Amino acid sequence: MNDKQQLAYKRVNADIIEELRRIVGENNVLATDEDMEPYTHDEVVGLRADPEVVVRVTSAQQVAEIFKLAQREHIPVTPRGAGYGLSGGAVPVIGGIVLSTEKMNRILEIDKENLMVTVEPGVITGDIHRAVEAEGLFYPPDPASLDSCSIGGNIAEGAGGPRAVKYGVTKHYVCGLEAVLPSGDIIRCGGKLVKNVTGYDLIQLLIGSEGTLAVVTKIILRLLPLPKVQVDLLVPFDDFQAAADTVSDIIAHRILPTALEFMEQDSILAAERLTGNKVPYDDAAAHLLIQLDGNRQEAVDADYEIVGDLCLKHGARDVLVAKDRPTRDRLWDARRKIIEALKHESPINHMEDVVVPRAEIPPLLRGMKDIARRHEVRIVCFGHAGDGNVHVNVLKDNIPQDRWEALVPAVTVEIYRLAISLGGMITGEHGVGATRRRYLPMALDETQIELMRRIRAVFDPNHILNPGKIFP
Ligand SMILES: Cc1cc2nc3c(=O)[nH]c(=O)nc-3n(C[C@H](O)[C@H](O)[C@H](O)COP(=O)(O)OP(=O)(O)OC[C@H]3O[C@@H](n4cnc5c(N)ncnc54)[C@H](O)[C@@H]3O)c2cc1C
5 falls in which pLDDT band (50, 70, 90)? Predict the structure, then answer.
């Protein structure tokens, strides 16, 4: 996208708003500053941009009509799920229409014969979990934001979550998609099919495309039988590095926990202050939160004995076992609230989401400490260490604004260099969006970026869909 193309976008005027009202109905067009305020941002600190109009769609046909209007008038369209993204993907950085799927929030069918669920994109992910679990079924991907984010946003971001260690991420569960192309054409890919190699895999191309290729309007997800037994371990360590070493040692022992989360002390203390719930051993340097599941109690117990012994071998202070639901929920509540809690601690902060091969977690975390020391800034690490994905929070605290503005890009580049030097990538699950696009050439060579640009141009030759995202 160059400046000329950007300037060539038309502004939304009264006639266009009238036409949008005709397409989606009076109540589903928001055009006042007050009504549109919630759509000016996602969860990225400090990134805001005003939409010119917001439309809340209820069908694929409406999306198609909006695209035809946007093509005719050359107006940018930014798709939006629940607005809980962490890379600015749903923020209308170039203005235009924000297309919200929040009203497409129906679970259409739970097919118990085929082990599939069909949903609209605006369904909150946690609602899918609860609905299928009530039928003894299991949808594993569980972003920590699961009670706020939408499944359409999960698809667009290729979302992961703690259970990715054992069960993989969103892309491993999508069997069918209906999507509307920027041309207004509606495509239906795949179906209730466990296997399908008919032509290029357009489903996997759309997953993780961050709302730049099409708007997803219906989703078929594969389900598993709900595991019968689940155990959670909370393991405090006095030595930050020992906790990091334990993560790679557990994996090296060929035990695949359901989840293997790492939480530095500052993140635990912040979560305690936010929730008012005390976490055991909150004076420890770091905690691991480990979940194991299966269908036989003895098998799960055997795994947790081995994991517990490994933790103790690495110097864990204790291995606390949570077998009942309320205790487990309390532990996970603290983990899920860390991002919000760190925002309370330091309302201005900067979050990265690097991913490295799992065995490189110890040098990655050591390197983060080194970066923090050299730049004299507080860096708090937590996240999905079991799949090599660590969230790195750089906190402003009392750093003066001018020093902070120079520090963030410098620290960001060092964090990326470190991850890449360990065989990693700059984002494991939050996406490139608006916030990381200038750094894309650090991770991908020009040939790959050019190939991706050309794919995007095939879907959207006129650059109306989510401009200002992904590409530098
Ligand atoms: C506290 C917290 C914890 C988090 N934990 C995790 C985690 O564990 N794992 C993880 O992966 N992420 C996590 N996230 C990030 C975020 O929740 C995910 O990226 C989620 O997938 C965003 O969904 P959303 O509905 O909020 O999407 P939005 O923010 O609304 O949009 C995200 C992107 O998807 C596009 N989009 C949305 N709907 C559609 C659609 N129907 N068709 C096409 N494009 C669409 C948008 O254009 C945008 O580019 C966390 C965020 C927070 C705030």
Answer: low
Ligand 1 atom nearest to CA at 338: 1
The pLDDT value recorded for residue 322 is 87
Helix 325-336 × helix 265-275 angle, to 10°: 110
DSSP characters over 248-281 = HHHHHTT---SEEEEEEHHHHHHHHHHH-PPPTT
pTM: 0.96
Residues having CB within 6 Å of any atom of ligand 1:
42-43, 78-86, 89-90, 101, 121, 143-145, 149-150, 152-154, 156-157, 159-161, 210-211, 215-216, 339-340, 429-430, 466
pLDDT in tens, 163-198: 999 999 999 999 999 999 999 999 999 999 999 999
Question: Can you tell me the distance from the alpha carbon of 367 to that of 349, in angstroms, rounded to the nearest whole number?
Answer: 19
The Å distance, Cα 38 to ligand 1 centre, comes to 15
* Residue with CA nearest ligand 1 atom 44: 211
Q: Which atom from ligand 1 is nearest to the alpha carbon of 170?
A: 11
CATH topology of domain 3-103+455-459: 3.30.43
* CATH number 1.10.240.10 given to 107-225: no
Q: Which CATH superfamily is domain 229-421 in?
A: FAD-linked oxidases, C-terminal domain (3.40.462.10)
Residue 430 CA to ligand 1 centre (angstroms): 7
Please, where in the chain does CATH 3.30.43.10 lie? 3-103+455-459
Of 222, 286, 233, nearest in space to 258 by CA: 233
With residue 453 as reference, give the H or E element that holds it. Answer: helix 446-459
CATH 3.40.462.10 in the chain: give the residue spans. 229-421
The tens digit of pLDDT for each residue in 319-372 reads 999 878 888 888 898 899 999 999 998 999 999 999 999 989 999 999 999 999
Backbone angles phi, psi at 116, to 5 degrees: -140, 150
Residues of the chain with CATH 3.30.465.10: 107-225
Q: Which helix (H) or strand (E) holds 303?
A: helix 297-313
Q: Indicate which atom in ligand 1 lies nearest the CA of residue 340.
A: 1
**Residue identifier of the C-alpha nearest atom 5 of ligand 1:** 144
